[in-house]
Amino acid sequence: MNKKVDFENRRILGSKHLKIGETSRYHKDQVYTDPHEIFFEAETKPSFVTGSEVIRDALKRASLDCFVAYPITPQSEAAALVGELFAEGYLGEYFRGESEFAVMGQCAGASFGGARTSTTTAGPGTMRAMENFPMWAGSRLPIQITVTCRGINSPLSIQPDTLEIYYLLETGMMVWHAESAQDLFDFILKGIIVAEQPDVHVPIAVCCDGFFVTHTKDTVNLPPEHMVLPPYDPYRSPVPCMDMECPPVRMMRDPFIMKSNYIHYATHASWQQEVHAAVDRSRKHANAILDGLIETENLDCEILLVSSGTAVSQGREAIRLLGKEGIDVGLVKIKTLRPFPKEEVLEATKNAKHIIVPEFNVTGWMAREIKSIIPNNERVMEGPHVCGGMTMPSEVIVEEIKKHLGLAKKSD
Amino acid sequence: MSKEKIKISEAMWDFMPPEYQDMVDRATYGNNQRSWKDIGSSKELIEQHSLCAGCPESIAFRYILASLPNPEDTVMVGSTGCTSLVFPHVAIQNIHSLFGNQNAIASGLKRALKVRFPDKIKDVVVLAGDGATVDIGLDMTMQSWFRGEMFTTICFDNELYANTGGQESGLMQKGFVSKMAPVGKLFEKVRLPEIAFESGCHYVACLTVSKPNRVEKVIRNAVLVAREFGPTYVQLYTPCILEIGKQSMEGLDEMKDAEAIGQRFVAKEYMTDNVKAFLKEQDAKDKAAKKAAKAAAAAAK
Ligand SMILES: Cc1ncc(C[n+]2csc(CCOP(=O)(O)OP(=O)(O)O)c2C)c(N)n1
Ligand code: SF4
Ligand SMILES: [Mg+2]
Questions:
Q1: What is the CATH number of domain B50-300?
Q2: Cystine design at A30: which of A44, A201, A228, B250 (Cβ 3.0–4.6 Å)?
Q3: What pLDDT is attached to residue A8?
Q4: Does B9 touch chain A if contact means CB atoms closer than 8 Å?
Q5: What is residue A410's predicted lDDT score, i.e. its pLDDT?
Q6: CA distance A106 to chain B (A)
Q7: Residue B243 Cα, ligand 1 centroid: separation in angstroms?
Q8: Are strands A45-50 and A217-222 parallel, antiparallel or unpaired?
Q9: Is pLDDT of A252 > 90?
Q10: ipTM of the assembly?
Q11: The pTM is what?
Q12: pLDDT at A253
């Protein structure tokens, strides 16, 4: 199905799909295009769009075979917009499931059957669906899910909050966290490419902070609409596609469940290790396609602000404000939470005296992640934390940093 | 998939496991006269299983596999339960993912296969226990019927949660004392066949697996109707001999008792008028094909 290509100067290492240059099987105006060309060479056009529209615009270029929808704020609009794409003939199949648990099962079924599959959810939807995510990973299904984070607490809240990401971290999926609408667009399409690499082949959750990203307008540079990803090839996979197009075999003499013996334990153990190793192997692809798993600015500063998602955007403004007062702060933006850029963060923070970790959740899981991998982790200042839908004004970050440095009163 | 695809290169023959060699030599793929009578002559129709000795699920499973009209292009979806001990032995691609989500998986799968192979028949058949179908998965079972999903759902009704040790299930008889029903089950056996018909199934059958001919017929009907019309449902009584205190050889008697007049498993079928006409036509075609096959065999002699 694939032909050899010249790898020189290519960021997406991998063979080039034979279908490149052919008209899409779904829409006659679209042409299968080399992902390298879409991401790095195509002329882009700035568009002023909401995050929900960006999800649609990305999936319009994804040669998607199947999307399963279910309403939950703040992703309902995006999921409905993808429905409009289906009506216009841009994807193979689209329907509404009956609950997030069922939707994730329906996505799994479609992916088992060899379809490039995507969905979106948020907050309680993520939690309702949770049993499915390790199943997706263990079954090596490269499903793309966009998670528009919102509160999961009771009393009911629909407001932005990133606590749900913490629950996704050990599911065996790749988890990337978009800071902006541009990230969201890029991460969705690039995530599909990385997830489908045969040596990776695990699901990918692209997270963004609900409302802040989904419901605000931003300028996003979009490649031309006629350029779409080459179709998914379900036979470039570490596990057989369930379509009876490849030989079925009696898979095991002895089913690997409910047996209490070493062989069975070892089988399960090695498969779990393999799934997490597959996530690890995504580093090399993500590194090339995302320009590194982290983005950094001014690492020579004694104070570093390290975080992911919208907290980074707010941090950027705080850094500007502090700069005006003569306090220099550097920045580390973490793009991929799984795999976690351990080496990169270690290196980036090695000279920092104060590591500030602002977060949009009550527990501060990002600070814990960072503390668990760096030496002298008393350098980490956990916070500021906001939750329940609160915004995090840059001034608050400024105040907290000053307090931490002993430059401001502890409380007014 | 054609039999062509399972061929082994001559040089590799000796290295392939006997199950695979047998599949190439003796699988009934592509033989439209295959039937339950082929059980025992092909490893593909489940040579071994890891269920309790004499468990009626084991023979029911074989009847079902032997009755599929298109095994070379059929994908099965299972669930957690005693059936998940058998699926790994089955020479048809099959999916186990979670407990109770089988009809959600099948919905996505069937639609994906339709998108990917628009000109080819790809059958999807769900096979799950009563706990999976009626209790934990009822929502997804019924929603797939409401949506008119084009696949067959088969439920192995053993009237309890066998795999976890015999707890109460929705299909258990009222009054039955079991684990988690310490004073007897307090509500009636759920009338899923009737609910299925009301919910949009075009063909519904409920029976025991005491008679292979009958099982073969309803499975074939259910798969063919699902292809043409929409969802179909088959509920099979496969008593859990372990949990109701029967011996290995007593499963058949238990089923015969349960299907006697006035008992809860008297065989029943529901179908729409269109399906009735379709199946009549199908029967005539099957008869003609059988006759032709016999004549051809006689001529070959
Ligand atoms: C989410 C979840 N809940 C509970 C279980 C435990 N469980 C495994 S099998 C089973 C019972 C299966 O009963 P049934 O569907 O009737 O199949 P049977 O074993 O009777 O054939 C249960 C409760 C599980 N695996 N997953
Ligand atoms: S526990 Fe019951 S249903 Fe399960 S294999 Fe044994 S007899 Fe069959
Ligand atoms: Mg049962």
A1: 3.40.50.970
A2: A228
A3: 66
A4: no
A5: 52
A6: 4
A7: 15
A8: antiparallel
A9: no
A10: 0.95
A11: 0.95
A12: 53
* A379-406 tens-digit pLDDT: 999 989 999 888 999 999 999 999 999 9
Q: Which residues of chain B have pLDDT under 50?
A: none
DSSP annotation string for B126-194: EEEEHIIIIIITHHHHHHHHHTT-SSEEEEEE-SSBTTTTSB--TTSPTT--BBTBTT---SPPP-HHH
Which residues in chain B are contacts of A142 at CB distance < 8 A? none
Q: What is the pLDDT of residue A251?
A: 53
**For residue A412, is pLDDT > 50?**
no
Predicted confidence (pLDDT) at residue A274 exceeds the cutoff of 70: yes
Q: Looking at per-residue confidence, does A300 or B3 come out higher?
A: A300
> pLDDT tens digits, residue range B207-229?
999 999 999 999 999 999 999 99
Q: B108 CB near a chain A CB, below 8 Å?
A: yes
List all residues 6 or more positions away from B161 whose beta carbon is below 8 Å from its beta carbon.
B81, B129, B131, B167, B168, B169
* Chain A neighbors of B90, CB-CB under 8 A: 248, 250
For residue A296, the number of C-alpha atoms closer than 13 Å in the C-beta half-sphere is: 17
| CA–CA–CA angle A312, A314, A318 (5° rounding) | 110
Domains of chain A: 7-236 (3.40.50.970), 294-404 (3.40.50.920)
Distance B73 CA to ligand 2 centre (A): 29
**CA–CA min distance B113, chain A (Å):** 6
Q: Is A284 exposed, middle or buried (0-12, 13-18, 19+ CB in 10 A)?
A: middle
B215 Cβ closer than 6 Å to some ligand 1 atom:
no
| Among A101, A110, A256, beta carbon nearest to B109 | A110
Q: Domain limits of chain B?
A: 50-300
Ligand nearest to the CA of B126: 1
Residues by chain with Cβ below 5 Å of ion ligand 3 = B 129-131, 158, 162
Contact B75 A68 (CB under 8 A): no
User: What is the per-residue pLDDT for A1?
Assistant: 43
Interface test with A, best of B1, B46, B94, B97 (most A CBs within 10 A): B97
